[in-house]
Amino acid sequence: MPTGVDPVQALVALSGLPVMMAVGARDEVIPLDVARAAAQVLRDAGADLTYREYETGHRLDSAGMHDVGQWWKQQNLP
């Protein structure tokens, strides 16, 4: 989660917002426990969170790219 952000404003802004979080279980930059804690913050803030973990490092594998693409299509976003 970013530092220096007003948590109250951030939480209000996330309410109902669709968010896709794709996490590498072997990420050497963002540890898995940090990613999971960030996901919980998003859930607690009311974000419409889709959370997926992949057996990869700090990158998306093909399964992750596929899932993000499918999620994007479901959101009817441009």
Polypeptide structure, described:
There is one protein chain. The chain is an alpha+beta fold. The protein has one domain (7-68). The chain has three helices and two strands. It has helices at residues 7-14, 32-44, 62-75, and strands spanning 18-24, 48-54. It has a two-stranded parallel sheet. Strand 1, helix 2 (32-44) and strand 2 (48-54) form a beta-alpha-beta unit. The longest helix has 14 residues, at 62-75. It is flat.
| Percent of residues in beta strands | 15-25%
Q: How far is the first residue's CA from the last residue's CA?
A: 26 Å
Helix/strand structural class:
alpha+beta
**Sheet bearing the most strands, described?**
2 strands, parallel
Q: For the CA atoms, what is the radius of gyration?
A: 13 Å
Shape: flat
How much helix is in the residues? 40-55%
